[in-house]
């Protein structure tokens, strides 16, 4: 039964990612928004639903370490693992004029979170400031997306069907991620793998599975702007949206290790992605290999 659920979870991730990418691309064309903007917003935010559920529930249950660790760990996995795999499948080449504004927001969000964690908690006021950052990000994304409208052709899929495909893809992704995490954890325990290794691999990557499926499918379909925008948008939403919402609901105490150990990793990952993207004009396959190598080193050090 566990193997069956594992297989169903994989199928859900594949078909959910396929429908989400196709639907989001059609939505972008209907509104004459660039695929990058749709990747940053609808796709990026939608695939962050598991992180939102986990962090809010953890904060309400008095487990702040999970709430923060989930976001920081997912952001690292998003860049090193997911963009690494996606770039190996197909080079992710994005024009520099689109990179600076979006990666700039991701760098700013990472720096702001690091500063907030230095005093040992994220207060309600800081949560409101994070949500204000999210609103600013959305405003800039849609404004610049309209300016890029000359690059977009009108879609041939009816608008209602495009939205239905996008919504269905998101739902199937979340269901698939849940099935895969639960079944994979059960299988790992059956093989005698320790809880620490399970937490470091399956659970840490589990909430990022929708991003992985979506970006990989987008790379296969040569929708490189959605593949990159999905990750950048997800990382921005994880910090501004998820931690902002969570802190407004319940202030989040933070262990010192987050500011001293985990945030340096997250910041180095974000800066490394930005440097690779600008120096190489995007993320060619060599960049994907470098990102995956860095993720392997991260897992080895954390283990």
TrEMBL record:
Keyword terms, alphabetized: Membrane, Transmembrane, Transmembrane helix
InterPro entries registered for this protein in UniProt: K/Na/Ca-exchanger, NaCa_Exmemb, NCX_ion-bd_dom_sf
Subcellular location: Membrane
Annotated TM spans: 33-54, 66-93, 99-118, 125-143, 163-181, 193-220, 226-252, 259-280
Topology of this chain in the membrane: Multi-pass membrane protein
Pfam families: Na_Ca_ex
Chief subcellular location: membrane
Domain (Sodium/calcium exchanger membrane region): residue spans on this chain: 3-141, 162-301
Signal sequence, start to end: none
Protein name, per record: Calcium/sodium antiporter
Protein species of origin: Paragemmobacter amnigenus
């Amino acid at each position: 039964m566990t193997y069956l659920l594992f297989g169903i979870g994989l199928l859900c991730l594949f078909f959910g990612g396929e429908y989400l990418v196709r639907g989001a691309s059609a939505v972008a064309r209907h509104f004459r928004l660039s695929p990058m903007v749709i990747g940053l917003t609808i796709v990026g935010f939608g695939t962050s639903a598991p992180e939102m559920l986990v962090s809010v529930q953890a904060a309400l249950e008095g487990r702040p370490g999970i709430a923060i660790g989930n976001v920081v760990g997912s952001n690292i996995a998003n860049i090193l693992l997911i963009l690494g795999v996606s770039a190996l499948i197909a080079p992710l080449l994005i024009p520099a004029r689109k990179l600076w504004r979006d990666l700039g927001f991701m760098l700013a969000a990472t720096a702001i979170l690091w500063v907030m964690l230095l005093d040992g908690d994220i207060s309600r006021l800081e949560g409101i400031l994070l949500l204000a950052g999210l609103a600013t990000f959305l405003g800039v994304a849609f404004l610049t997306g309209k300016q890029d409208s000359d690059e977009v052709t009108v879609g041939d899929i009816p608008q209602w069907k495009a939205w239905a495909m996008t919504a269905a893809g998101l739902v199937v992704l979340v269901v698939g991620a849940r099935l895969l995490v639960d079944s994979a954890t059960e299988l790992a325990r059956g093989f005698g793998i320790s809880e620490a290794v399970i937490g470091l691999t399956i659970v840490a990557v589990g909430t990022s599975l929708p991003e992985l499926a979506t970006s990989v499918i987008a790379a296969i379909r040569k929708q490189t702007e959605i593949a990159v925008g999905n990750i950048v948008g997800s990382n921005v939403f994880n910090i501004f949206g998820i931690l902002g919402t969570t802190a407004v609901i319940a202030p989040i105490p933070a262990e010192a290790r987050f500011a001293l150990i985990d945030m340096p990793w997250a910041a180095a990952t974000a800066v490394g992605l930005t440097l690779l993207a600008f120096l190489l004009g995007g993320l060619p396959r060599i960049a994907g290999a470098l990102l995956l190598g860095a993720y392997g080193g991260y897992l080895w050090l954390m283990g």
